[in-house]
Amino acid sequence: MIPALHRMTACIAVLMLIALPAWAHKASDSFIYVDPTQAQVRIDLALRDLALVLPLDSNGDGKLSGAEVRKGREAITRLVDQGLTLSNGSGPCQLTGRQWGVSRHSDGPYAAGRYQVSCPDSQVPESITYSLLFEQDPLHRALVSVTNSQGERLGVLAPDDRTMSLGTSTGTFGNSLKLFTTFLYEGIIHLLIGLDHILFLLVLMLPPTLPLKPRRSTQAPRGRDLRNRLLELVGIVTAFTVAHSVTLALAALNIVTLPIAWVETVIALSIAVAALNVFWPILGHKTWKLAFGFGLIHGFGFASVLGNLTSGVSQTVVALAGFNLGVELGQLMLLVVLFPLLYFCGRFRLYERAAVPAMLLMVGALSLYWVAERASAI
Amino acid sequence: MTRTTNRRTTTCFESCGLRRQSDADPWLTALPPALRRRAFSIVALVTALTLETALAAPAAIETEFDDQEILITLPSEALAPDTLPGTAPALADRIQEYLTQARAQGDPRYLGYAQGLFERWPEDRMTDRLKILRATLNQSLHRFEPARVELTAVLNSPNTNQRLASQARLTLANLELVQGHYQSAHAHCRQLANDFPGLIAASCLAQAQARTGNAKTAYESLQAQTHRSLAGDTISRIWAEGTLADIAAQLGKPQAETHWRQVLMLAPDDLYTRTQLADWLLERGKNEAVIELTNAYERVDSLAVIRAIAMKRHQHADADRLSAMLEERFAEARWRGTLLHQRDFARYALDLEEDAETALIHARANWRDQREPLDTRLLLRAARAAGDDSVLADIRAWLEKYNQRDARYPEARS
Question: pTM to 2 decimals?
Answer without folding.
Answer: 0.67
